[in-house]
Every structure is written in C-alpha cells, then in structure tokens.
C-alpha cells in the first residue's frame, strides 16, 4: 500500500507589486502549516519524500510541516493541472511509500477529486490536505481511497 498526502499551501499574503511566486505565508498561514505537521504526526504519517512547488509560500509550508524533511522542489508543480501533478506522482521512486505533494489550487484539489471521485466536496482551502491510500504502484496510480480530509478552519 502507498499513501499520497496532497496539501494546498497555507494562507499567503496578497501584497500589491509582489509577484505571485514570491508571496510568503501570513502569520495565520505559518500557524496553520505547523498544525498540518502536528496533524500528520497524530495520524502516524511521516512522508518519505515531499514534492513541492518552488514558490515561497509552498516552500515555507513544506518546511513548517516537515522541518528538515526530504523536500524536492519541482518547478512543474507551480500552476500545474491535475493531470500534470498525477504524472509527477507517477514518476516517484517505487521505494517511496508515503509521498507528500505540496502545491496550489485548482490543481491539487482537482487531483484529489480525480483520484477519489469524492461527491459532496466542500472545497480545498489554504492549508487543507487529503490523505489517499492506494494499492497501485506510483507508476500506475489512477485511483485511491480518501482516508482523511483535514482543513485548518475546522481544527
């Protein structure tokens, strides 16, 4: 079994004149990212690998969620569609059992929906994550079971 954790970056600032990739987290975003890390520990999840967009807000989120963790920055995650994110996941080393993908909406939300066919979805706000389990190898991933959905506004 493999576990995919799909995480949308935590809340970021909106500052006029600052380019989108350079937007950092707000104080609330930093708190929420730390809560994500605590939630993953509580769930017994320790990613073997983190694939992360290179934007400032995703980098900060990943580093607060998994300090000192094995983080690889993938420029293709920034502004990626769900099918592009799925292709990145499919290229993951088969030795990786638990993978954390840190990215942006709408791609990460659509990836979760595409893998789990979740009806009655309530959205994917900043700092939200979904835990998806699958019996598939990464290379053949096309569906999974949504085990947990977590939203910082609810915690």
UniProtKB/TrEMBL annotation:
<dbReference type="InterPro" id="IPR029033">
    <property type="entry name" value="His_PPase_superfam"/>
</dbReference>
<dbReference type="Pfam" id="PF00300">
    <property type="entry name" value="His_Phos_1"/>
</dbReference>
<protein>
    <submittedName>
        <fullName>Phosphohistidine phosphatase</fullName>
    </submittedName>
</protein>
<dbReference type="InterPro" id="IPR013078">
    <property type="entry name" value="His_Pase_superF_clade-1"/>
</dbReference>
């Amino acid at each position: 079994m493999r576990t995919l954790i799909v995480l949308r970056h935590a809340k970021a600032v909106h500052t006029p004149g600052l380019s989108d990739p350079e937007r950092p987290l707000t104080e609330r975003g930093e708190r929420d990212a730390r809560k994500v890390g605590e939630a993953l520990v509580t769930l017994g999840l320790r990613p073997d690998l983190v694939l992360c967009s290179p934007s400032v807000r995703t980098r900060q989120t990943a580093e607060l969620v998994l300090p000192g963790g094995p983080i690889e920055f993938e420029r293709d995650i920034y502004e990626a569609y769900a099918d592009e994110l799925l292709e990145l996941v499919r290229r993951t080393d088969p030795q990786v059992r638990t993978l954390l993908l840190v990215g942006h909406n709408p791609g990460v939300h659509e990836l979760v929906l595409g893998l789990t066919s979740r009806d009655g979805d309530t959205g994917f706000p900043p700092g939200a994550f979904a835990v998806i389990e699958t019996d598939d190898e990464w290379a053949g991933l096309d569906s999974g079971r949504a085990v947990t959905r977590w939203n910082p506004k609810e915690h």
